[in-house]
Amino acid sequence: MSTTTSAAPEPIEGPSPSPAPAAGPAPLSGGALALLTVGLALGTFMEVLDTSIANVAVPTISGSLGVATTQGTWVISSYSVASAIAVPLTGWLARRVGEVKLFTVSVLLFTIASAMCGLAHNFESLIGFRLLQGLVSGPMVPLSQTILMRSYPPEKRGLALGLWAMTVIAAPIFGPVMGGWITDNYTWPWIFYINLPVGLFSAACAFLLLRGRETKTMKVPIDAIGLTLLVVGVACLQMVLDLGKDRDWFNSSFIVALAIISVISIAFLLVWELTDAQPIVDLTLFKDRNFALGVLIISFGFMAFFGSVVIFPLWLQTVMGYTAGAAGLATAPVGLLALVLSPMIGKNMHRLNLRMVASFAFIVFAGVSFWNSTFTLDVAFNQVIWPRLVQGIGVACFFVPMTTITLSSVSDERLASASGLSNFFRTLSGAIGTAVSSTFWENDAIYHHAVLAESVSAYSANTSAYRDAMAQIGYVGQQATVKLNSVVTDQGFMLATNDFFRVSCVAFLVLAVVVWITKPRKGAGPSMGH
User: Fold this and answer.
1) The CATH number, out of the four listed (2.60.40.420, 2.60.120.260, 1.25.40.10, 1.20.1250.20), of the domain defined by the range 26-222
2) Which of 4, 240, 330, 350 is close enough to 288 for a disulfide, judged by CB 3.0 to 4.6 Å?
3) Is 90 exceeded by the pLDDT of residue 145?
């Protein structure tokens, strides 16, 4: 198995020839291809959806099972920890059992685990089933990507990638909306039961349409040391990110211990995997320039993007007084243009300058971030949704081209490993973005509250005038003090929100420049079989 080196061809003028078809079964066509696309897309949507759909149901689940809300967050953490461990194992597992079999079994086990989550009779069993659900979900997203690309003709693999990206984009956006609606109108187990028909359909499509199209397998020995280091290192890192903010980060001895274990385990993992003959994670993929830079740019881009996905609804609900449903509706427009444009961009990928499209995406993100940074406490709902709608253009122009750049020079037999590794870093960067953005936002709000409070004084003319105005509407004494503090708090969070989006704007502008150090061939698409 050859290793792709970092020497990538320079951009050249004119269209380049399409990559040669991979050895093996011919690509699907017609109704079979359409049905497979729907089946794989629904499987991907289901898995990504479960990373966010339970978020809004945590208070309801906690109350139903008799635990505190802080304990209830383990419903989210247990899934994310297990999934983070399993995703980078995709390549190794696919070599052992075959990509089609692994995807089909993963979807079936995920479906069964979902049913068990819904049937859980106590909190401990729910956490156990969520761990199982996360562990078996790992191969689903990367394998849906590689199988879909391999099933399309070479000239249409950009379209396949666009369709795949469309589902990955849509699921986190609609997850909280669906979770809130199901929790409000039914009971919380239904957020898991809805996976049953979707999972069975997805598994049936893969089994029936991909029989006889299995990839080559080999008896790869189990890298027990690498596996142990991976499980310990990634699990501890994910727990640091999930629990750090609630436990005041490194002021907690528990978080410090987890961080130390994670750093040591991952450091030993890197050394071990680079020297082992049969590593469980193929780190030599990073010798390929486009893969290494693509993963880096996607990770930082997704980190900044996901930070806004977290902060925006938080601001709407905690500061602007939106309900969970209204916040979901205000957030959802980002998916509209993304859903429309992603397949279009994918279909025309071979005609586009990938770096220019990705750079344009970051400029759109930067413009939207600056737009958001101008909001005030009296911004109307219709003013809130317009930037989110425009952001969808950037989403479509970011995911598809950057994924294409990342996988453009990866050989067919290493595609599952590459997809698993790139999806792992994307998922991890989302967790980091969530932790960093929420911590920055809250700390910055405290800072602004303290600065604003210095201006609130009994000797201040503005303060006296504001108290007089509140007195006229019935706020006097302690009520006036509480109301005044609430106003200062809201202003502090508003200023913190503006600061966050300004920082995001700068980060996106930097990425718009950095993307030009990649070297994809003009007209290149995700290559297979070379």
Assistant:
1) 1.20.1250.20
2) 4
3) no
